[in-house]
Amino acid sequence: MTAFLLIWSPKKWPWPELPDFARRVRAGEAVADTWGCGFARGILPGDRVFLHRVAAEPRGLFGSGYVTRAPYEVPDAAYKRGYRLCIDFVYDWLVDAGEDVVIARDSLRAHPFSVQTWDAQSSGTVIKPVAEGALEKRWAELTGRRPMPAPALAAMHALRDTAPHPAPSTRKRGPRAR
Question: What percent of the chain has pLDDT over 90?
Answer without folding.
Answer: 72
